[in-house]
Specification:
single chain; 165 residues; alpha+beta; 6 helices; 16% strand
């Protein structure tokens, strides 16, 4: 029998019960430990953070600092900064990782697939030809071939070269 060693998944399993108690989109930016918390960018009203449990390497999320699950609660300036940040993050991922495409979206509500329902956020998932294989279908397992910190450092180096959005 082959074994897939993924010790970082235990953190996800252990946090599942805590997920309802804390909002990572509020607590992580407040800690001001951006590399440790995988926060790539902070704007005036929105920020970009890497997904700790990514679908693919480079899976990012963009969220407003404002804690809300309702798009109507966001001001026009917040929505504009979110869109500007999304555009910049796509450019960043394109430069740093050369994906063949992107999935970008927001899940509003648990039924729509939101893992964190109380704080609206957008996902950016880089995609490559052939990045879907038998593992998710047969083993209910997604293989992510790069450590989060390595991806973070790679993206930060490109951000330093590109400058701010």
């Amino acid at each position: 029998m082959n074994r897939l060693w993924a010790p970082w998944r235990m953190v996800y399993i252990e946090q599942a019960d805590e997920g309802e108690r804390q909002c990572i989109f509020c607590t992580k930016p407040a800690e001001n430990r951006d590399r440790e918390n995988l926060i790539l960018y902070r704007g005036e009203t929105a920020f970009a953070i890497m997904n700790s449990f990514p679908y693919n390497p480079g899976h990012l999320m963009v969220a407003p600092f404002k804690h809300t699950s309702n798009l109507d609660d966001l001001e026009s300036t917040e929505l504009l900064e979110i869109q500007t940040t999304l555009r910049y993050m796509v450019r960043l991922l394109d430069e740093a990782m050369k994906p063949h495409g992107f999935n970008i979206g927001v899940n509003l509500g648990r039924t729509a697939g939101a893992g964190i329902v109380d704080h609206v956020h957008w996902h950016i998932v880089p995609r490559w030809d052939g990045d879907t294989n038998f593992m998710p279908v047969l083993a209910d397992t997604k293989v992510v071939p790069e450590a989060l910190e390595s991806t973070y450092d790679k993206l930060r180096r490109v951000m330093d070269r590109l400058g701010a959005p």
